[in-house]
Amino acid sequence: MFAFREWAKQHYRMPDGRETSEVREYELVIRHTRELYGETLAAEFGPLNFKAVRQKMILAGWSRGVINQRMGRLERIFKWAVAEQMIPAEVHYALAAVPGLKKGRTEARETDPVKPVDPSTVDSTIPSLNRHVRAMVELQRVTGMRPGEVCRLRLADVDRSAEPWVYRLVQHKTLHHGKDRAVMIGPKGRKVIEQFIADCSRRARLRLAANLSHSHSRM
Fold it and tell me: Do 212 and 126 belong together in one domain?
């Protein structure tokens, strides 16, 4: 697993060179597996060992969905090892035969579906936010952007030469699949951005005026 971890640190990287969250996820899976089978050869790791690791995750209180995702990562580690000719192919085939946890048929914790925040809650929260966060929330509401996308938005990435404006993401979830990601920004989104720019410009002018006044008073 050490070999896979070193490979993952190089493979799961953002365009700017930072590691993605997948590295942390794999390290978590590797740690849980090694706590039980740190002395077991990878070629001898079988379905019962696989299930024992899963049971450890259940006892840790993780939800069924999270456990299935992380066990999928554990299976992919062995699949990678097969592709690198480190272990026999039948090791991965055997692990792949273990079905995921099914709802209502496991002691793993279930979670409630994640639903959108009630619009009235957002409306009552917005006045308490600073101008940066307020603009991001308002822009998300009218464009459907993911949180990470709106946080990374730069005016340089927005084509404002036509209507609607187009936000072309330099970094997104499907970039490694060779896909482009663009967000259309219509009149409502455009108004949010323009208002944010105006607010920043006004505050900058006020700060400049205050600094000049302070300088003159010292003279």
Answer: yes
CB contact at 8 A, 45 and 91: yes
Angle at 107 between CA 47 and CA 33, to 5 degrees: 40
Span 168-188, pLDDT tens digits: 887 545 545 456 788 999 999
Same domain for 89 and 127: no
- Using DSSP's 3-state secondary structure scheme, residue 171 falls into coil
R_g (Cα) of the chain, nearest Å: 25
Do 92 and 126 sit in the same domain of this protein? no
200 in the same domain as 169: yes
Element (H, E) at 130: none
Specify the pTM. Answer: 0.72
Which pair of structure tokens corresponds to residue 158?
A: 């927005």
Is the preceding omega at residue 187 within 30 degrees of 0, hence cis? no
Cα–Cα distance, 155 to 173 (Å, whole number)? 20
